[in-house]
C-alpha cells in the first residue's frame, strides 16, 4: 500500500509513525514464523533419518 502526501495529512503524522512501526512489526513476525517453519522442516527430516538409522540397528542385532 502506497501512501500519498495527501493521505499522510489526512490521517495525521503521528498515526503514520504508528503505521510504519506496525508494518515493521508485521514483517518481523512473518520472518520469525518463516524461520521457525524452516527449522521444523529440518528437525522433521533429522527425526526421520534417525528413525531409519534406529531401524537398521535393530535389524542388525
Task: Briefly summarize what is shown.
This protein has 61 residues and is mainly alpha-helical.
Report on this model:
The chain is mainly α. The chain has one domain. The protein contains two helices and no strands. It has helices at about 5-10, 15-60. The longest helix has about 50 residues, at about 15-60. The protein starts with a helix and ends with a helix. About 0% of the residues are buried. The model has no long low-confidence stretch (mean pLDDT about 80).
Question: What kind of sheet is the major sheet?
Answer: none
The total count of helices amounts to: 2
Outline the low-pLDDT stretches: none
Which percent range describes the beta-strand content? under 5%
Give the topology string: H per helix, E per strand.
Answer: HH
Mean pLDDT: 81
Helix content: over 70%
Q: From the alpha carbons, calculate the radius of gyration and give it in angstroms.
A: 24 Å
Structural category is: mainly alpha
Head-to-tail CA distance between termini: 63 Å
Number of domains: 1
Biased composition (Basic residues): 49-61
Region (Disordered): 34-61
Amino acid at each position: 500500500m502506497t501512501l500519498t502526501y495527501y493521505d499522510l495529512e489526512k490521517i495525521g503524522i503521528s498515526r503514520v509513525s504508528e503505521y510504519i512501526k506496525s508494518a515493521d512489526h508485521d514483517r518481523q513476525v512473518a520472518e520469525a514464523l518463516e524461520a521457525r517453519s524452516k527449522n521444523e522442516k529440518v528437525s522433521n527430516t533429522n527425526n526421520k533419518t534417525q528413525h531409519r538409522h534406529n531401524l537398521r540397528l535393530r535389524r542388525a542385532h
